Amino acid sequence: MEMINALGRRKAAVARVYVQEGTGKITINGRDLEVYFPSPILQYVVKQPLNKLEVAEKYDIKVNLDGGGYKGQAEALRLAIARALVKINPEDKPALKAEGFMTRDAREVERKKPGQPKARKHFQFSKR
Fold first, then answer.
1. For the chain, which domains are there?
2. Which of 34, 48, 51, 84 could form a disulfide with 6 if both were Cys (CB 3.0 to 4.6 A apart)?
3. pLDDT value of position 100
4. In angstroms, how far is CA 80 from the centroid of its own chain?
5. DSSP, res 113
């Protein structure tokens, strides 16, 4: 099997994924998954599509992660892995879609408006 690539985005994070047959090793920016994401919750988020299809030990995954925070990066990576798995085997798409792994979460940070401290918050109104 040749190398399959896919892209996942979430907030400001972009994950470029390269999947090939192997032993289940995930390398992110040259580091191991457990080193890059020390939190077991984020490791679980990243591995969700692999565990759903029970192929966690079947593929080696090389990742370029850029931008955003650790949560956004983990979710971008989850989307990229799900898209790569569908490229490898299109019959897996309904199973991944049912879990919500194929959906790009389009929520972005709202911009700060002038004359306000934050996007929605306003300074206290004083009548006098």
1. 4-99 (3.30.230.10)
2. 84
3. 93
4. 6
5. P
| 73, burial (CB in 10 Å: exposed 0-12, middle 13-18, buried 19+) | buried
Measured CA to CA, the distance from residue 52 to residue 82 in angstroms comes to: 10
| Alpha carbon of residue 95 to chain centroid | 18
Nearest to 27 by CA among 66, 73, 62: 62
Rounded to whole angstroms, how far apart are CA atoms 55 and 110?
38
Q: In what order do the strands lie in the sheet with 31-32?
A: 4-10, 13-21, 59-66, 26-28, 31-32
| Blockwise average pLDDT, block size 10, the chain, 128 residues | 90 95 93 94 94 91 94 95 93 93 94 96 93
Q: Which two tokens stand for residue 2?
A: 């040749």
Residue 92, token pair as written in the block: 């897996």
Report pLDDT for 2.
82
The single residue listed with the structure tokens 């299809």 is: 53
Residue 119: name the closest of 109, 104, 128, 127 by CA.
109
pTM equals: 0.90
